[in-house]
Amino acid sequence: MAQCPVITVDGPSGAGKGTISHLLSAALGWHFLDSGALYRVTGYACVLEGVSWDDHPAVTEIARRLDVTFTTCPSGEIRVAYQGVDVSRAIRTEQGGRGASTVAAIPSVREALLARQRQFRQPPGLVADGRDMGTAVFPDAPLKFFLTASAAERAERRYKQLIAKGESVSLPRLLADIQERDARDSSRAVSPLVPAEDAIVIDSTATPIPEVFERVMQAVRQQGY
Ligand code: C5P
């Protein structure tokens, strides 16, 4: 039986992947996989259970039995729960990002989360957001995007988001965090952050998100979806 279609959207954090893939899944009426949330919940669960992110066997065990659920609210927002408790906000902190990228570098953790990610492939289709959706998780996806933007631009976008939420943050600190996370994500041995050979690469440094979405939709329509 032919597998139902997947569109993969990969790239570094802050490149607009989340926004674009949410818009895309809403426009197509397809399911949505936020794979980063799985790594974030794994890192967060380690903190709750007193497990060090460097204890590979214990982190892998946590990933294997991760009790995580995604619920779509009537507003379209997706809430993430760990052991039934809403952790949507708790996993989005800077520490949450560091924990995610630390545990994501452990090959057995990636392996443990692989089958779970593939279960999201359900009719009528899936939009999958992450770092290795097009290279490792859904290499047979018929349409792949890789969104990128300069680190300075991504730090600036994140800064504005956090300031709008009333948080006090430092732009140089955010930039350093982004550069550190990029380096860790790009240099790891397993599933490093690289575009799939057949991915459409879009640099959004100087392109507003609505325009990026238009380009994505053009390619999607060409594919007949
Ligand atoms: O996308 P998000 O910022 O939520 O991802 C958090 C971290 O999880 C990333 O920095 C990356 O290290 C890791 N990740 C990954 N593979 C994915 C998605 C996220 O390694 N498919």
Structure description:
With 225 residues, the protein is of the alpha/beta class. It has one domain: P-loop containing nucleotide triphosphate hydrolases (Rossmann fold). It has nine helices and eight strands. The strands form two sheets. A five-stranded parallel β-sheet has the order 2-6-1-7-8. A three-stranded antiparallel β-sheet has the order 3-4-5, covered by helices on one side. Strand 4 (78-82) and strand 5 (85-86) form a beta hairpin. Helix 2 (35-48) crosses helix 3, helix 3 runs parallel beside helix 5 and helix 4 (94-103) runs parallel beside helix 8. It starts with 5 loop residues before the first strand and ends with a helix. Cytidine-5'-monophosphate (C5P) binds at residues 13, 35-36, 39-40, 97, 100-101, 104, 130-132, 181, 185.
CATH topology: Rossmann fold
Biggest sheet features: 5 strands, parallel
Please give the share of residues in helix.
40-55%
CATH-scheme architecture: 3-Layer(aba) Sandwich
Count of folded domains: 1
Cofactors and ligands present? cytidine-5'-monophosphate
Can you say what the CATH homologous superfamily is? Answer: P-loop containing nucleotide triphosphate hydrolases
> What is the strand content?
15-25%
